[in-house]
Amino acid sequence: MIAAYQESQSTGRYDFDAELPPPVTLFWKYIDRCDMARWLDAFDSLSRGDGIWADCVNGIISFMEDPLPPNTAVLRDGRLVLPPRLPYVIDRQATTYDVFVAGTPHAPGTVSTHEVSFQSPVLHVQGHQATAAEPIESSRLLLRADDISRWTVVDDRGGAWFPEGVLIKYDAHRQPYFYGDEVEIDVPTSDLTVRVSRGPEYRTVSHSARPAAGEVLTMDLSLERIENDARRGWYSADLHVHLNFIGGQICSPADAMAAQAGEGLDLMNVQAANAWGATVYEREAFEHYAGRQVEGVDGRLLTWGYEYRNDMFGHFHTLMPEEPPAIYHTGHAGSDQPHDWPPNAVAAREAKEHAATVGYAHPVFWPISDDVNPAFEPHRARLPVARELVADAVLGLVDSVDIGQPAHIDGAEHLYHRLLGCGLKLAATAGTDAILSHKRGWFQANQPGLYRCYAYLGEDRLSVEAWREAMRAGRTFVTSGPWLELEVDGRMVGDTVDIAGPGKVRATVRCQGDDVEYVSIVGPGGTLATVEVGRGQELTTLTADVHVAQPSWLAAVARGGTVQTWVGEQPQAYAHTSPVWVTFQGQAVANPQDALWCVDWLDKFEQLAREEGSFAEPKQLEDLVEILDQARYKYRSIATRRDMTG
Length: 646
Prior knowledge:
646 residues, Immunoglobulin-like, TIM Barrel, 18-stranded mixed β-sheet, Pol/histidinol_Pase-like, plasmid, CehA/McbA family metallohydrolase
């Protein structure tokens, strides 16, 4: 598998294959150079396929930040424009520039890579030249940590420095990082900042240094663990990670294990998946390891599954199926499965027959509300919203929903709450969709575990089976960092509190996290109780006597700050638990308003499929409608409080 990627990479392609259209490839590769706010303003135009695609390079240039980001040059209108802060370059090393040459009405724009070095710091482009780097003397850092960690080394101009042989990574905020426990790096003799971290369970350590020319400076750094959660029965996971899925560099399983250890993840679920064509990246590895857990560094588990992908119906990930599926994807025009058939429900049922869990990934890409839902606008039909989730969940084919993920947090939360209001026992989970082969880009270049979920295994030893059963029982919470636990009348998430009728239950939330601004208890009626958290306050407890007028669900949410992402502002600190269920003498929650909202969702989904779907014959559409009809029947039964069986 790796050899095939290496052969493809030797041809100079970015995607390890020949199936991506050049404009798509360019945007994947260079989107991090763009001003995200301006790019988002044009998102609808891009999704319709018009606008800048005719000359992709000019489109990228038009969205570029001003001033230019590091190591980026633009030749336009007879001028060679460089960033204001030139990078350092040291002896025996070069630095690369991506040079964008604007197109004309008669010729498309081009982009190429150029090197400048200590001996030759001048950039030459089509008869233009400019000094593009500052030569400087070098020194060496020897970095050592007590375990594999995530490192960042930057100079006083923001330049990033990496050791040889590691995956070079820049996250969505252009912060560089790499993984290791003992590494050597040649660096400039400038002011340097060194940061080391290992996920949210450890405190990040930051040091400054200015090594002298020729000096070897050693830094031994140990990370303080905030709380050893595994000793209390909680184990972390990222359920949606890719190794090689375009991205410009090749990620081996050893690289993946280093990333997992460097983020302190107990379980990392790697997904085989296609992109736009027939190639299923990591298929060979998945089929080799199907049904087997792989023990990584210090007893951590690396698992292999597959992401089943239909961009109109939605994507779902699987956790360690015992066998490969009959097909891996549908609805991609350039693939061997070009039509939107069979429905996702068929694939989900097969996955569950193979002992896998099914979790819908990145459910919603925009804010949604009772009245507004952009997921069904025709020009967005091929953006992979979890449209079939609403049907598959009520049919008992889904175990979890990734509300911790790179798409829209509030939109995913709104959809999740609607499904809970119908009494559907879906665990809250997380999947970053991180692609380890990505050097830089959008969210795909983020570290795995940026969002993660914890499952409570109690006294059980860490294993995929134990983690999977805890998730199916709803003993989970999702987080970007804060620790969050909920008890209702002494029962934990996933449990049921049965009371005689309308009355009060006592809910207690425990939250730990520096950036949290408020903690809330939520249910079918929205926010039921909340407490503000003071700046720098690490531990917060919220206890409230909640009046329950009808069978219900209760969950805890923590939020703090905002950060700009590719789908708009998201909470910087976020955590959400699975619910505790409150029943009245065995009668479960069945909110008519939520059920009818789900019926409306399915009606809109059917209309979109009729207008924008790709079906080889009418029977294929009928198969989807049959699934939707079964789901609508169950939701209408919930709305009228009829028995859901049958």
